[in-house]
Amino acid sequence: MTPGPRTPPLDLLGVGAGPFNLSLAALADGVPGLSTAFHEQRTAFHWHPGLLIEGATLQVPFLADLVSLVEPTSPWSYLNYLKFRRRLFPFYFAEQFHIHRSEFDNYLRWVSAELPSTRFGHRIDTVAWDAEKDCFAVDFTRLGPDGETLTTGVAHARNLALGVGTAPYVPEPLRALAADPGPLVLHSADYLAQRDRLLAARHVTVVGAGQSGAEVLLDLVRLRPEGAEGLTWLARTPAFAPMEYSKIGLEQFTPDYTRYFHGLPQATRDRLLPSQWQLYKGISGDTLGDIHDELYRRSLGGGWPDVTLTPGIEVTGATTTGEGRIELAVEHGQQETRGRLTTDAVVLATGYRERPVDALLAALDPYTVRDDAGRPQVDEAQRLVLAPEIGGSVFVQNAERHTHGVGAPDLGLAAWRSAVIINALTGKETYPLPDRTAFTTFGLGAAGRTATTPRRAAEERR
Fold first, then answer.
1. Over pLDDT 70: what percentage of the chain?
2. pTM of this prediction exceeds 0.70
């Protein structure tokens, strides 16, 4: 029996189909002859469903969609989505530069369903380099609607793109209670699913001073009875601080700054990142204003709402009481004092961490070049730095903050990063990218290094 023709390997296989790999899939869809597939374990796309609170908006303009900042004429742009939904005129009259988060979720789900390269219900299990075939061998499992195994298979691809996203982070002192089905301790990612239970609780504590914590607190304040709100908001940061949102300040989310940050020494990058927390962990000024307005309105009668906002607090422990309540051990760093807070429910707006891919990439570990802290090195084109024995590239998305800076998880850089990957993949300028994107000059450029002060210039003329 004559064997059938061998299926050639894909040019690119995406692991995960969150917003960043979805951006890559959308831009790749417009490249003739480029074969791609994007495998996602979930059976359908959903973008932070637990935080699609009524009225919540994106913190970036709608132009930070999957494609527009690179290819605004793409059929996968947000404006084309509105055209498809016949909603362009309502959007035009709404004059909304920052759209509702639920609308952005609808847009992303539309793209994920319409793109021919997405494969939902496909879990990638392992990845290895097949030297004989000169490509990656990718073991995957096709899942049913309840997560059951339907079939297994192997796909082959010359290159990979890791976009597995992040997972909700629960601080160690609260992990035991969060895993216990009894106490009402949950991550903000599950907020809407548990909102009714939170509204029924006598007292709720929100932990975390980022945008999610602010939105959860605001929603609870609005929904709980006046004078009996029973809310406490705690944060480790020294203040409930606004996110940097000045026009020049935002230039730290440009390709120019990303390139500058990537060129810094590792030790400098590691020192710099924690100091930039207000660039990505702060709160929208509008949200802070809304919270103050709501609290002020509730004080018009002369009393104070039952809402406590305390920054500078770290939760160091958590237990349950005999009455089934939750007792938090807390410390105030500036006062150097300790105390206990009793509450009935805790919402952890404590952010997200990169999903580990060690098991997935175990076969590539001996070939992966790491920095002094043991983290994978990522080159300027978003590729893991691998030993020469590996002939293909492994691109990474939202797993490179240590090498590319605060813009790694930012939606505004999604299309640009996808274009960088495609250009590296095709070996040509498939998507032309601007040489300059900021008025700010980061670092001492060539002109700065050769410039002389008037005094020095006079000395040099002698």
1. 95
2. yes
